[in-house]
Amino acid sequence: MYTDRKNARNFWVSSAEPTRMMRFVLVTSCALAVSALTFAGPASAADLVKQTKRLAFKRTPESAASARDLVELARPQDPSQDAAFLAAVSWVGRAGVFNSDWELADKYGREAFEGGQALARANGVDSSEDVATALGAGIEVIGQTLDAIGDRGGAVEFLRAQRKRYVGTSIETRIQKNLLLIDLEGKPMPAVAIDRFIGAEMPIETEGKVALFHFWAHWCADCKRQKPILLQLHEKYADQGLVIIGPTRLYGYVVAGKDATAEEEIAYMEGDWQTRHGLPDWMPKPLANQNFINFGVSTTPTLVVVDREGIVRLYHPGRMTMEELEPVIQSLL
Asked: For the stretch 281-305, what's the b/e string if a residue is b when 16 or more beta carbons lie within 10 angstroms of its beta carbon?
């Protein structure tokens, strides 16, 4: 269970050899102090979400059990009407996924999904961050659980149905990411939309090539960390048939989250951002918001590797090291 040991009192006795009664009092007092801390629970619903999230990301069976216990201790009389509680429930479901505890994942993932679905019907998916979190994570956990227990077809069918149901909401991209994680590799690469380019307009020629697509965002720190690896790969393998393409999208803001029109954001990416962090001129940078929905880019960077026949061989939300990515590229050249 979750215990804040930093606040536990220290009990000292002056005698070098405490009596049996003193030892009993010492042990009992310590146990009561720890017990009080363990069952005090979070001070607020927001704290409950933060604590269950932190415990989930510890990725241990013990921390998953602690997250579950915190949620059960805080369970309200009507959980289906408490969006923050359901968001915390969704973190318990994800803790189950992280530890391959599919019973835990299924139980709490379905509770988050069903409760989030009810709140979304009443108020809208994006009526609050907690509703979107509970519903989006519940869908994710159910899809991952179905796939893990051997029902990939059921997982694909479920995720496709949920994307259709929640098209246009903030969770659509997240649902698509989870669908592609289990259903894109081994399939032909979908077409990449192009509204315009960031920087010079240039042809995207992938036929007969090994293609690495690097979906990035101008605000993304991990995208900046991915850049040196892309440069190394280009230097080593471009003459063997590797091409690297960098699709991106608009977010409606620029540095420090300042609101911006489309024209202002493009000017920022082609100007100040390009000067300080820019991707190389040899990399085509197609711009289209729809790509990020179609390719499930709720995590940046997202990397997609396509072989010479146009078949996806890797779909990876998140940054990759040279040690992880280079062998994939080498095997296809």
From this structure: eebbbbbbeebbbbbbbbbbbbbbb
